[in-house]
Amino acid sequence: MAIPELKPSQMAGPVVDDLAQEVSDAISKALGRGLGVTEVSSMVAIVAADFGRIEFGEDFVDYLAGTIKLRRDQPLPEFEYDQEH
Question: Which end of the chain is more exposed for a tag (fewer CB within 10 A), N or C?
């Protein structure tokens, strides 16, 4: 199955906002339990990649990597992050 093009309009709205908050909460919780940013972010990416691979095949890994790289030049979202954990 071909990977559909992701449109900016698909990355906005209450459902997407809720998902982003839930993922952020899960990451914060894991950090609070002593895991590091590297471990937590890697696990989130691995889980997302595995879901995409099930749906779209192995090419989804490259697609996800490209999507992540697009964030490089974007402003960081505003949220509280205790770097001391």
Answer: N
Site of tokens 């889980």: 47
CA atoms of 82 and 64, how far apart (whole Å): 27
Q: In this predicted model, what pLDDT tens digit does every residue of 20-31 receive, in sequence order?
A: 899 999 999 999
Tell if the pTM clears 0.90, that is, is over it: no
Q: How many Å is the maximal CA-CA distance in the chain?
A: 43
Using alpha carbons, list the distances in angstroms from residue 82 to 9, 28, 29, 36, 79. 31, 9, 11, 12, 10
Burial label, 82 (beta-carbon count in 10 A; 0-12, 13-18, 19+): exposed
